[in-house]
Amino acid sequence: MRFTRKYRTAGRLAVALAVAAGTGWMWQGYGPAASGPWTPPSGARCEAPAAAPDIVGQIRYDSGLVLRYCSVGAMLAQLGALEQPGLVRAAAVRAADGRWLPACTGHDCAVAL
Predict the structure, then answer these.
(1) What span, in angstroms and rounded, lies between the C-alpha atoms of 78 and 98?
(2) Burial class for 58, CB neighbours closer than 10 Å (0-12, 13-18, 19+)
(3) 3-state secondary structure of 9
(4) Which 3 state secondary structure label does DSSP give 23?
(5) Residue 60 and residue 80: Cα distance in Å, rounded?
(6) pLDDT single digits (tens) 66-80
(7) Neighbours of 41 (CB within 10 A)
């Protein structure tokens, strides 16, 4: 009678343990961001009323928050930031004639402001 060892089971166990150890190592420090009041970057927002002509861009969030900007560069920097006060629902820029246009490209940009 011949005795055979099954190395396949030991290999699968080793891979499972390695995956579990790697997942535990990567999971370390993962969690929600530090809570606290969110504030936009300093100097980026424009505190003028919504009808003011110096407002050139605005971002609307799902919570109802509307941030207005005096420069398109500051608005795009906020859109590219990692921290946001909510989900972005719309971003718009003001045209020369005073109309609000969606700040996106392409023909399928149907954002109602």
Answers:
(1) 22
(2) buried
(3) helix
(4) helix
(5) 14
(6) 888 888 888 888 888
(7) 11
